Amino acid sequence: xxxxxxxxxxxxxxxxxxxxxxxxxxxxxxxxxxxxxxxxxxxxxxxxxxxxxxxxxxxxxxxxxxxxxxxxxxxxxxxxxxxxxxxxxxxxxxxxxxxxxxxxxxxxxxxxxxxxxxxxxxxxxxxxxxxxxxxxxxxxxxxxxxxxxxxxxxxxxxxxxxxxxxxxxxxxxxxxxxxxxxxxxxxxxxxxxxxxxxxxxxxxxxxxxxxxxxxxxxxxxxxxxxxxxxxxxxxxxxxxxxxxxxxxxxxxxxxxxxxxxxxxxxxxxxxxxxxxxxxxxxxxxxxxxxxxxxxxxxxxxxxxxxxxxxxxxxxxxxxxxxxxxxxxxxxxxxxxxxxxxx
Length: 342
Ligand SMILES: Cc1cc2ncn([C@H]3O[C@H](COP(=O)(O)O)[C@@H](O)[C@H]3O)c2cc1C
Ligand SMILES: O=C(O)c1cccnc1
Description:
Elements lengths: L8 H10 L6 H11 L11 H13 L9 E7 L15 H12 L3 H9 L2 E6 L17 H11 L9 E7 L3 H13 L15 H17 L7 H8 L2 H15 L4 E3 L2 H13 L7 E3 L7 H9 L15 H19 L3 H4 L7
Parallel strand pairs: 1-2, 1-3, 3-4, 4-5
Helix pairs in contact: 2-3, 3-13, 5-13, 6-10, 7-8, 7-9, 7-11, 9-11, 10-11, 11-12
């Protein structure tokens, strides 16, 4: 699914969006029928029942199954870090990629605990994106190619895709993308990220405002917002979400940064994220606002603000359980349990 030579690279992305499959209504009907027979009061598993239905709808399976879940982390570096908008130096991006490979990060432990596969995609870390206060982060060809690269995350017969990121400075570009897509002042969209104090957050807002001014007049097209104000890991996440849709793989999206990338697709088509669930509510303050714009309720709210796919990976434990519960439970008839009294 690399961009073809049919025209501008973004045209290939738009063509995929126009061709997105919809939910499998027959699979949903089958899950609902079976759900009603399982040995529990109707509706007693709350949102877990909805997760089983969502899995079936997008997998196109009458019985949902999660046997090959994958966490994909995309890592990128950002030119805007020259303005001191993170509590950590940008060298930490590469160092954390090495830490992921060595098994020392939080996400490695979550993957062990829940038996999730993990792949880390390093996106030209030695080539930071453009400084968004004065130039676009990426040109169109690089942005489209990075989206195409992100599509590779769906390979290998996976049946659940969990998306996360690593990139010092990326809560700044996420804020810029969110503001570019939904408007409002930069102060609405920035937060402490890795741990800025109030003065640091105010400076970060000023930098995002500068970026918005620099690109004003070019932000009507969501893909332009992505390439001008975003970064490689955001582009790759957007590509991965789109490829997952085409391959009928349900997706779990992590915190503020991953949600900002997803929001680009939502602005292109309000149904583009129907195959996605939002794993958690990040403590990054603007994540709640962004989810409200998308009209979505996250699965977990644990006060986490780590990134690297951690909140979505924790939610993958719930999604695995939802599939197992639905597939494995006995029906009233099978178990000889009496149904509801008349
Ligand atoms: C050691 C360490 C591990 C991380 N894992 C994820 N992030 C998270 O923090 C970064 C975004 O925050 P900001 O915009 O403030 O730089 C991203 O790399 C994100 O995934 C980390 C950050 C650090 C320091
Ligand atoms: O919610 C996130 O994605 C997040 C929050 C803080 C730092 N990095 C990522």
